[in-house]
From TrEMBL:
Ranges for domain Glycosyl hydrolases family 2 sugar binding: 15-177
Protein name according to UniProt: Beta-glucuronidase
Domain of life: Eukaryota
The keyword Nucleotide-binding is annotated on this UniProt entry: no
Amino acid sequence: MPKPVDSSTRTNILLDGLWRFVPDSEDLHEPWKTTLPGSMECPVPASYNDIFVNPSLRNHVGKVWYQRICHLPRGWDQDDTILRFDAATHAAEVYIDDEHVTSHVGGYTPFQADISGKVYPGRSFRITVSVDNTLTNETIPPGKVITTGNGKPSQTYYHDFFNYSGLSRSVRLCSVPKTRVEDITLITGLEGSTGTVIYDVATHGDAKTVQVELLDVDHKAVASGKGLKGELKVSDANLWGPGTPYLYTLRVRLLDGSTIVDEYTLSVGIRTVEVKGLQILINGKPFQFKGFGRHEDIPIQAKGHNDAWMVHDFELMKWCGANSFRTSHYPYAEDVMDYADRQGFLVIDETPAVGLNLNIVGGLFGAGRKPTFSKEFANDNTQKAHESAIRELIQRDKNHPCVIAWSITNECGSDEDGAREYFEPLVKVARQLDPTRPLTYANCLTSPWDKDRIGDLFDFIGINRYYGWYQNNADLASAEIALEKDLQGWQSRFKCPLLIMEYGADTMAGLHAMEGLPWSEEYQSDLLTMSHRVFDKIEAIVGEHVWNFADFQTGPGIIRVDGNKKGVFTRDRRPKMAAHTLRKRWTEGRQ
């Protein structure tokens, strides 16, 4: 089912708020069959880790349990009832009263259960959910659970952000007609000044008549059609693009005679995306990316979605002059994608496949190498989980005009034996699911241009580079030479667009130094300026995404002081000097 909407035939009840909560323990036996013990409550949506003051819960490994009592409203007896979770990090089991109704693996995409016949109008029922944050070598993202010296489990993982867990996005009860719109796939295009919208509607039940209308911002019909498939044409179409986010509304109605059986509406942005030579074209015009890698990470609520923080973050990006961002390193909340549609931001939409590289630390600091693509780590089961993540991401976000490319992995071991055999089938799946958008991935320095084995599979290549920080630290002159040589190599070999997806330096807000001291605000700003000089020399560079928009929490590590400090804003969104450097470059022209 597509994202829940309210319409003349559909009603949704938001189940956000305080749920009963308890971490799993040996004392719990079939807890879904009774009221959860204790008095703990946890807000939804939120990650649970930073809310409670017990350190063992912040670092909890395994299941936690959520529970609440709900009532099905009177009048819902004619329709089906769907229980929908926007996400559960990373695996969930759902029970209605004493009955198991669904399970899901994957921490950032929605899932649902049809609970019709298990709940009844005017009566209460109990929802119990277990959420398991365990990561293994066969999950996406991967990880490993080890036993510590005190005999307790500890979760290790291969990505540099904290493993926040729980019900971090909304939960809904949805009343939908038994005969209903089950899915919509849209492809937009341009024929001169005429916009085209190809639609493909899937239904559940026996739909007699399918009526489709495209409405402008004044809710006036500008095109219409009938049937499950068709093409709508709009003369002198208003195009969706950066800074001009014009959205039409597609209204699909299922009719039985003159009776509306179901009505579903969907925002539509008419635009095209094309990779041509060394350029990425939006609506036929070359586009230069200015923006950030980001994280869903805010104080206390952590990865829990919050509209106030979302709007403020977009305002700060606009203030900097940004026009795009990457959903590093997982799909963001659907509300973020909807807002990007309305605000005209371009999005590189990424799967949670971060950490498929056992040698990134070894490559940076000289440790030994281990095979990433092997039976012991990234194996056939890992690949299947990765494929599932790609399928669920594209299914969820395929109709967003803001999404102009799919990124299927971040900083994988693309120079290793087995890398091509692992990724080539996944690229094929992604292209079959969506042949209209380009594919990319984010390359890291441990897989250099002359050793990378997968770059030719993609339409453009994302480059993550930290010259001046992890390499040539405190020596920006040498870093500048090395960065230019590196990027020239990528351009010469692959002859495709290159998007800088990460560059930057850790910076302590308030630390100032005249002599180019690493960790100072001046050094971060100088490193960005040096990088910009190089980017402007490379013809294939189509833009830059700074790492990171804001400081964020990570797991424990001796190079991390209260998290990753590469943000140009602090975690509570105060600007560092680098934010002003970017604003000058992005709003006043290249500097």
